[in-house]
Amino acid sequence: MSIQPNSAAAIHLVYTLKPSRSILVFQLCSLFILLMIFYQILSFAELLLLLLLALTSFFFFLKQDHIRTLAVLDAQDWTIQYAHSKTKHRVQIKKIIDQYFYVVVYFESRSIKPLLIWGDQLPKSVWKSIRIRSKLQ
Predict the structure, then answer these.
(1) Distance from C-alpha of 137 to C-alpha of 29, rounded to nearest angstrom
(2) Do residues 102 and 1 make contact, with C-beta atoms less than 8 angstroms apart?
(3) Bridge partners, 90 (sequence order)
(4) CA terminus-to-terminus distance, the chain
(5) Structural contact between residues 7 and 125, judged by C-beta atoms closer than 8 angstroms
(6) If pLDDT is split at 50, 70 and 90, which confidence band does 65 have?
(7) Do 66 and 121 form a contact (C-beta atoms < 8 A)?
(8) DSSP 102-128
(9) Which residues pair with 71 in a beta bridge?
(10) Contact 90, 69 (CB under 8 A)
(11) Is the pLDDT of residue 120 over 90?
């Protein structure tokens, strides 16, 4: 028996992540605040160099492969699928922590970075589901 991605049961078993606008706005606002602070203490040439370095690192961050799908196999076994890959990887979740605006998923394997899921990456019902899952863990 397979679960259809749009069925009611899939809300609690498959989390398909959209790109987050919240993190983009947060990062750009942080960059702006840092530039305003450095504007006070650096020369204009140093500020332009810092801006170029910051924007370069920001675009490299955007090009990183991000997790697109997170699906439950059983209590601790999950599968993840990256955005630019068809391959699914089996992982074990160590813990899920709800931070109100975002949820952090920690994996047992140290080779996989913790996953930050922002509220705008999922529909409201699915967002509530993953927040409840974090409290039940």
Answers:
(1) 33
(2) no
(3) 79
(4) 26
(5) no
(6) confident
(7) no
(8) EEEEEESSTTSPPEEEEGGGS-HHHHH
(9) 14, 79
(10) no
(11) yes
